[in-house]
Predict the 3D structure of the following.
Amino acid sequence: MGKHEVCAPKYIAKKIKAKGLQKLRLYCQMSEKQCHDENGFRCHMTSESHQRQLLLFADNADRYINNFSKEFERDYLEVLKHEFGTKRVHANRVYQHYISDRHHLHMTSTKWDTLTDFVKWLGREGKCKVDEGEEGWFVQHVDRDPETTVMQEAVSRKEKIDRDDQEMMMAFTEKQISKNDTPIFMEFVRPREQHKIVVNLKVERKRDEDMKNNILVASNALKNGSSAENKKDSRESGRRRGEKRKLSALGEIIKDEENERERINRKDYWLVEGIVVKVMAKCLGDKYHRKKGVVATVCMLDSGHKLKLDQEHLEMVIPAIGRPVRVVNGAYRVCSAMLRELDQKKFCVTIEISSGPLKGRIVDKVEYADICKLYNVDM
């Protein structure tokens, strides 16, 4: 009988049948041969090659069964790991993925009679997490890869550091809230009725005096007939008003420049070389926690060790009044200054710029987070 033409229905049906799985009871594991029907399987059982394989199996049956069992276990766990990861999945669903390969090893050739026995054995050996539900047995892969273990430890350390930072921020916020005492309003109660409240208001009659002076000046001007003095007074008053307008316009220009400088120089980062910072990362241990250092990478002042840290693990250091500081953020970023005043209630300071073209300018209401202590070699 000739072969069917390519792409013909019979040809496609035979290809699909050859590619797909056949009946399990018509498969010989020793010969690795799949038979299409019972007649073919009977012929294979009486063949010489099958008889030779049976003789080999009879010589050392335990070794063959153990090898088949190890291969089945390895392939099953490989499918569980790559197809489902560490998810909890039904054991039969994994088995269906496993037997989808035509050349898979059959369970009948292993030491386990059923899939349930195999799943229970995996649970006893600790190779998988197994549990029984209403729909049957479920398995979950246990990843024991060293690289995965190192990655999970790194993730857990980072989460711990983030939790520590959040706890510190919450404590700082609660401390600020507790410092802002809300005023308590009470009703005024007079202790005794006979006690009278006397209010002495000293009202200055400046307006009346000015009016009198103006009247005297006007009368003198009429008597002397000199209108030049009135013109001179009007020019002087006009000049004063012009100076006030000029001063107010200059103040607006300075304010606009500061706002523009604030917009340009306000950054998410604040670390610069030469400032003194405090290490707040608990993961470095008590040896460095809450110790001060100077930013090079971070050089510890007491031990001289150099650390490489992120600014999230550091905190600004506020020096004493009269000591030099560095502006690390805001309108006057990177400028050196001297600390003049410290307002602990409002968490701000007053500084005097000590370098650059703005030297000598007094800047008030600068937040703690915008300045840091400047490292001095002689300190």
About this structure: The first strand starts at residue 27 and ends at 28. The domain at 62-141 is CATH 1.10.10.2030 (Arc Repressor Mutant, subunit A). The mean pLDDT is 75. Residues 283 and 329 are 27 Å apart (CA to CA).
